[in-house]
Design goal:
The protein is mainly α. It contains ten helices and no strands. It is flat, with a radius of gyration of 24 Å.
């Protein structure tokens, strides 16, 4: 009987996302994992991610022609210039891959979070779990703003700039690089409200301190806009900077909400004890 009781304890447990249900006083329980178990978990997450991208790639092959037409119209060109004979098919499959990654982004982000989740406390997991939908939403919002508004207006400006002196005929590679850089940059920049909420929720920085740092925020926003914008002209840089600063102002609201929730949870148990006394 003793051997039967010991064997289950020696059996290695399969890595998974811990439950968020309360376990009483010992709320945070961390199970140590060996290097082999970490590598197995990483392999499992990578396989699921690749499988999701491959399935999305099939959808990308179907949508690639429409996206190429949309990019062509936004770039104000009749046709994309090619240098080598294989560029058309390479660009087609590359576009399909971009679509696949965009479709599979929620899965990719979840697998990344699921891999690091066992090392977080229960409070941290609860907060991050609640933030996941907003992270995906704001990333897609930033990328969509870049794709449908910022980039077309940038190409409209670039295609008419000194057109009597320069022949505007960009290659697909340069246009795709422009799209990826600006879309990814704005998608990340639009995470600012979520980051500021987490800072307030975890009591890292007060909302009042963030609000008094607007002058520094403006400088950082301008630097970020200059990095995101591939062109050196102030027109496109300001067109990128304004929505990023708007995210900072929205983040101040989010930080206040997170700060109030953090204060409410910290005061709650004390208030209950005083009321019981």
């Amino acid at each position: 009987m003793a051997i039967k009781q010991i064997l289950p304890a020696l059996k290695p447990s399969k890595p998974s996302l811990p439950s968020l249900r309360s376990t009483g006083p010992e709320e945070d329980i961390f199970v140590e994992m060996t290097l082999a178990e970490h590598l197995t978990e990483l392999r499992s997450r990578l396989v699921k991610t690749v499988a999701g991208i491959l399935l999305a790639f099939i959808v990308g092959l179907i949508l690639a022609p429409k996206l190429l037409e949309l990019v062509r119209d936004a770039a104000n060109v009749e046709r994309f210039d090619v240098i080598t004979a294989v560029e058309p098919i390479t660009n087609y499959f590359t576009t399909a891959l971009y679509i696949a990654v965009a479709i599979a982004f929620p899965l990719i982000f979840y697998q990344m979070f699921a891999f690091i989740a066992p090392g977080l406390t229960r409070k941290e997991k609860r907060i991050l779990y609640g933030s996941l939908p907003f992270v995906v939403f704001f990333f897609m919002l930033g990328a969509s703003f870049a794709f449908f508004f910022a980039i077309p207006r940038a190409f409209e400006f670039l295609s008419t700039f000194q057109d009597d002196l320069f022949d505007y005929s960009p290659t697909y590679g340069s246009i795709a690089s422009f799209y990826i850089r600006v879309s990814l940059g704005l998608g990340i920049a639009f995470q600012l409200p979520i980051l500021m909420y987490l800072m307030g929720r975890l009591s890292l920085v007060s909302a009042k301190r963030l609000s008094s740092s607007r002058r520094y925020a403006v400088v950082i926003v301008m630097i970020a806009a200059a990095i995101i914008t591939p062109t050196p002209d102030p027109f496109n840089m300001l067109f990128i900077a304004f929505p990023i600063y708007g995210m900072y102002e929205l983040g101040l609201i989010f930080a206040r909400v997170g700060e109030r929730r953090s204060r409410k949870r910290s005061v709650g148990p004390d208030a209950e004890l005083s009321g019981a006394g």
